[in-house]
Write a structure and sequence with these properties.
alpha/beta; 41% helix; 15% strand; eight-stranded parallel β-sheet; TIM Barrel
Length: 301
């Protein structure tokens, strides 16, 4: 059962002028869910990508999350600007850890400008910060990139794998319509000790591969979508020691608020769906997710 109150950090003014009030409501942040019985962490969010009616400060966003049992988050970079922001953000609040990388859809643009090598070098420098715990999000995306861009994507992915291994950081994977090729590259390069499939989008077959390899699967609000039978099949076979939860905020808001802005305080909707789908005790599942997240990224303390 949901609390009808929107966290103060996300309250927005009523629609003004000629804007359709129904459209305005869709852009508002959803109500806060009932708090979780055991705290968990949102292991993938983008605090530098505000949606809805304007940006929310880091402290306010994390306060809203903490109020419903989401005690920390991993802020994720996907280009140089957002990776620089991530390094600044993790110094502002101890409830944040960070990940830095060039998103697979951005790598071809850096390559076309002749800046890919210098950008990768800066990612490695940024990753030296002690609260940057992951290289990500990196990987392959065959949905938005094609042609020559795919070659640059794969090269960038391989370079990110190398950085993660040399710095002993977790690798956070972006995998869209590219499951077999992501697995192929990981095997060819030799995967880092810790690998997380962010916003897991595979099926039971990929989940079994992750089980075999010891790769974490992070489930987002997409799990709650009506057309996500593949994700529910994957969750059913996923090793409970390898599952985590995320928002990918401000995107992928879980049902029943799909289409409205997302934020870390929305994690409980997805966790409750995970518990229901797996027939798990909610508190026990939260405890497992929290322990898995710390194993993947280290302590927030």
């Amino acid at each position: 059962m949901c609390n009808s109150t929107i966290p103060a950090a996300y309250r927005v003014p009523d629609a003004q002028g000629t804007q359709d009030p129904a459209d305005a409501r869709r852009k508002d942040f959803p109500p806060a869910p009932e708090p979780l019985p055991v705290p968990v962490m949102d292991n993938h969010t983008h605090l530098d990508f505000p949606e809805g009616k304007g940006p929310v400060g880091i402290k306010a966003a994390l306060d809203a999350a903490a109020a419903v049992g989401v005690q920390g988050a991993v802020q994720v970079g996907c280009d140089l600007a957002s990776s620089r922001f991530t390094v600044e953000a993790v110094d502002q609040d101890p409830r944040l850890l960070g990940a830095v990388a060039l998103h697979p859809n951005d790598a071809p643009h850096y390559a076309a400008a002749g800046d890919l090598e210098s950008a990768l070098a800066e990612i490695e420098r940024l990753a030296a910060h002690p609260r940057i715990r992951a290289i990500g999000e990196t990987g392959l995306d065959f949905y938005r990139t094609e042609g020559e861009g795919l070659r640059h994507q794969e090269y960038s992915f391989r370079r990110h794998i190398d950085i993660a291994k040399r710095l002993d950081l977790t690798l956070q994977i972006h995998d869209r319509d590219a499951h077999s090729d992501v697995v192929r590259v990981l095997r060819e390069e030799g995967a880092p000790e810790r690998v997380v499939f962010h916003c897991f989008s595979g099926d039971g077959e990929l989940a079994r591969t992750c089980n075999d390899q010891g790769w974490w699967m992070s489930f987002a609000g997409t799990l709650t979508f009506k057309n996500a039978a593949n994700l529910r099949a994957a969750l059913a076979v996923a090793d409970r020691q390898l599952i985590m939860v995320e928002t990918d905020a401000p995107f992928l808001t879980p049902h029943p608020h799909r289409g409205r802005p997302n934020a870390s305080y929305m994690v409980p909707y997805t966790v409750r769906a995970m518990a229901e789908l797996t027939g798990s005790d909610l508190a026990a599942l939260c405890t497992a997710i929290s322990a898995n997240t710390v194993r993947a990224y280290g302590s927030w303390a």
